[in-house]
Write a structure and sequence with these properties.
Helix content is 77%, strand content 0%. The protein contains six helices and no strands.
Length: 132
């Protein structure tokens, strides 16, 4: 808020990207280069390079570094609300990790296309939005 940035818009664009990128990757593997996953890695590498170059232009001189970072983190972790938050995040990660690992193995055994596998990631975006 001090810098006039709307963090909600940044999060919304992140969720939109999470919803659109997986089906697009599956579509590329299924229809542009059938069965060849190389294109997805090339596109991801290109986008990572572009994002890295954009990050180099960020101005990070607006905030002084913390002097007692470890002490502050330990002090914050002693609060019951933070402990509960960490437990919820742990369980959320375990459950989504389990689903995202074994669901795809099951779908592949059933003969699902790569586009469908990407769409299953897009279906998780509203759940991620609610839980974060």
């Amino acid at each position: 808020q001090e810098r006039g940035v709307d963090y909600g818009k940044q999060r919304a664009w992140g969720y939109i990207a999470n919803a659109l990128a997986p089906p697009l990757g599956g579509f590329m593997v299924d229809y542009i280069t059938p069965g060849n996953f190389n294109i997805v890695f090339y596109v991801a590498t290109g986008l990572t390079i572009i994002a890295s170059l954009l990050c180099l232009r960020l101005d990070l001189k607006y905030k002084a570094p913390a002097m007692k970072l470890t002490k502050d983190i330990i002090q914050q972790c002693k609060q019951p609300e933070i402990i509960l938050l960490l437990i919820v995040v742990l369980f959320n990660g375990v459950f989504f990790g389990f689903i995202e690992t074994f669901m795809y193995i099951y779908l592949i055994k059933m003969g699902a296309s790569n586009t469908l596998l990407g769409l299953t990631l897009s279906a998780n975006v509203p759940i991620q939005f609610i839980t974060q």
